[in-house]
Amino acid sequence: MKGIILAGGSGTRLYPITLSVCKQLLPVYDKPMIYYPLSTLMLGGIRDILIITTPGDVDKFKAIFGNGNDLGLNISYKEQVSPGGLAEAFIIGEDFIGKDDVCLILGDNIFYGHGIPDKFNYAREIINKKGGGVIFTYYVEDPQRYGVIEIDDDEKVLSIEEKPQNPKSNYAVTGVYFYDNDVVNIAKELKPSERGELEITDVNNIYLSGGRLNAITLGRGYAWLDTGTAESLLDASKFIEMMEKRQGLKIGCIEEIAYKMNYISVEELEKLSNKCIKSGYGGYILKIAEGEKNKNKNKSPI
């Protein structure tokens, strides 16, 4: 399975902050926003990743990640010239996707919870066994602001509506989507909505009409944060700060995740720490690398 991070758009809800910088490069506490969705894909075992962004921002992302090899990843880039809707990502990324299944994650969404890797592996398992699509839902108090999903007790999807005035449930559709390879042709056949975009809700409804859409609920113990407004961006930063200080562990540390997932060696991890050694972030990575090297030294020979 391949992964796409959609990091385009003009970020108008964050003006004037985003007049000079891409939204997905804004800091969420101690890291660029895009570190969080990237780390989520990595935890899900996805290593071939396409970042779709605006023509003016491609070089900025390349400066941060390059080809991804330092993290044991394969990262490539495509441009979305103008906002054409979430579903346009599958058309832009057609060559990248090839014959594989794909996971799309929005560049301003943050997912937190110890069981996230298991949830993602379960989604991949569903796609591998029977195809179709898998969406993730999350209980919210203000469903009118989101795409809303109606599900039964067995998490079977009954309906999906985009920002309904009278929502049928409090379960919002989050910003991560798993699909089989059919999604490319489905996206190609979509008609633009009234706002001139190819809507992800239309993709989901096509899968739903064919009985091929599954839902996974993120319940207690999980957090889903949408950082698209100034208030939500600040809330996300406060949340990350609180959790990191309380636990002493970083959230969305892509270098640590690359090592824990066996994408890179401890020596490569230590080398990555040198790029930001003067910051607390770099010191955290170095501490992990040194701890792992000492652990290996103290192992008894077999």
TrEMBL record:
GO molecular function: glucose-1-phosphate thymidylyltransferase activity; metal ion binding
Catalytic activities: dTTP + alpha-D-glucose 1-phosphate + H(+) = dTDP-alpha-D-glucose + diphosphate
InterPro entries linked: G1P_thy_trans_s (IPR005907), NTP_transferase_dom (IPR005835), Nucleotide-diphossugar_trans (IPR029044)
Cofactor(s) essential for the protein: Mg(2+)
Coiled-coil region: none
PANTHER family from the UniProt entry: GLUCOSE-1-PHOSPHATE THYMIDYLYLTRANSFERASE (PTHR43532), GLUCOSE-1-PHOSPHATE THYMIDYLYLTRANSFERASE 1 (PTHR43532:SF1)
Protein family according to the UniProt entry: Belongs to the glucose-1-phosphate thymidylyltransferase family.
Cited function: Catalyzes the formation of dTDP-glucose, from dTTP and glucose 1-phosphate, as well as its pyrophosphorolysis.
Protein name as it appears in the record: Glucose-1-phosphate thymidylyltransferase
UniProt organism field: Candidatus Acidulodesulfobacterium ferriphilum
